[in-house]
Structures are given as structure tokens and as C-alpha cells.
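Next comes the chain:
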Amino acid sequence: RCGLPHRPGSLHAHTARTSLGVMDMDDDDTTAGPDASTEGAYVRFGQIAATGPDFDALGEGMAKGNIHIAGREDGDRFDLSAGSEATRQRQEALLQEFENRRRQRALAVTTDDKEVRRQLRELGEPMTLFAEKEMERRDRLRKLLAALDELDGGVLPVPDEALVVENVDVQRELFYTEGTAGLMRARAAVASYSLPRAAARVAMAKKRRVDPNVDEVAELDAAAAATARFATECSQIGDERPLSTCRFSPGDGGGLVLTAGWSGTLRLWRTDDAGKR
């Protein structure tokens, strides 16, 4: 039971009177208290119908179709709605497409266009379609092989030449190639010329490093300042490979220039017009 106290002129009294006037109560147990205009009057409602201890809410919900449980006469499975069925079909189509793409990526298809055409012919497919290029034809073969693999029938006949296995013995041993007499003489001449000069250069560098009167930084700065006043007189490509050395002729005041490059070629140039001599 619930009670709504009200007083004349108050919001509660107005609400109680309005509810009492518009509600059509069929319950005989519904009673109204004293006159609504009486001070401290109550509007009382009896017990709500069909809510007693014997009320079967589950049965009433099943009768109205609001509750579905297993074990009914029409079976344990219920048909999906149109929207749910369409969603399920879209999901299955997406999963199938992803699986087909995975198969296509896993398949190894030859890049030889003649072999692609031959395999298409063996599968009973046209070798080429209108305006189809090599890459498109290869993709079409890959899709066909993926579809056949899905049906468990896409094994192509393996050509006999593909089964040939060649065993190549790899030799792993140390061996020397005997050089010619001319190569030996040339290397001996290079060593006799280069090694003494390299030793002298290293000794001079060590001596200059311990000499307190030698300032290498000042010498480098002086050389950089001197080259800053140079101007380009002419330009010429000295070699196909990078140049390794360049020397001016000392006898004629630098009238000739000798260049040597990584290609092993020596070239002599004139300094007046940068022409070969």
C-alpha cells in the first residue's frame, strides 16, 4: 500500500486529486480515503492484481511471446531475423575472401608468360583475354589455382624436367694460381720503388710530430689560404676512374701535367689548353 499525503493548494494534493479523477480502477479493494479537501487526507490503493505468490510471470511472458526457451515444440533453434541473417552472410563472405587471398599469396606462380599460358590451357581456361597483360594473366592463374586448391583438386601435372635433380660437388680447398714471370717482375719493381719511399715518409712524419718548431695546423691553414686565391683556368676529365695523383713538369715551369687514375692509365696534358700530348 502507498499513501500520498496532501494539503489543499499543494502540489501533492493536486497530483493526488488528478490521479484519482482520471484513473479507472476496477479493483474492488481500491479505496479512497476521506474527502480530498479534508486536512491530512490520504488516497490509498489496494494490492495490485495478479501479483500474488501464485502469479506465474514466466508462463505469462512465454504466452505473450516475450520469452523464448529451449525445449519447445518447434525445436531448440530459432530462425534469425532478416537483418541478423544478412549480417552473418556478410561476415562469412568476408572470411571466405580473406582465406582466398591467403591462398593466393601462398601460391608460387611462375613469371614465365609461356608457362602461364600453358598452365591455363591445361586447366581448360583461355590462354589470354581481351586487353589482358602478362601480370593480369598471372594473377588470373593464381586465382584459379587458389580456387582449385580450395576444392582439393588443383594439383597440376608436374613436368618431367622439373624432377631432374643435379648434384653439384662444391670444392672447398685452398689453392693458388701461379702468376706469370712478367707479373712477378712488375710487382718486384713496384715494391722496390714504393717501400723505401713509404718508409722515408713515415720517418719524416714521426720526426715532424716530435719537432716543437713544426706547426702542422699552421701549415695547413697557410696552404688553404693560398689555394683560396686560385682561379680555374681550364678543366678536363683526367680518367674514367678517380685520379690518384697529379704532377707538374719541373723543367719547363709546369708546362705539362701528368695524371694517373685508378684505371691504371697515365696521361700527359698541356697546361695552356688542357689538351692531351
Remarks:
- The first strand starts at residue 31 and ends at 32.
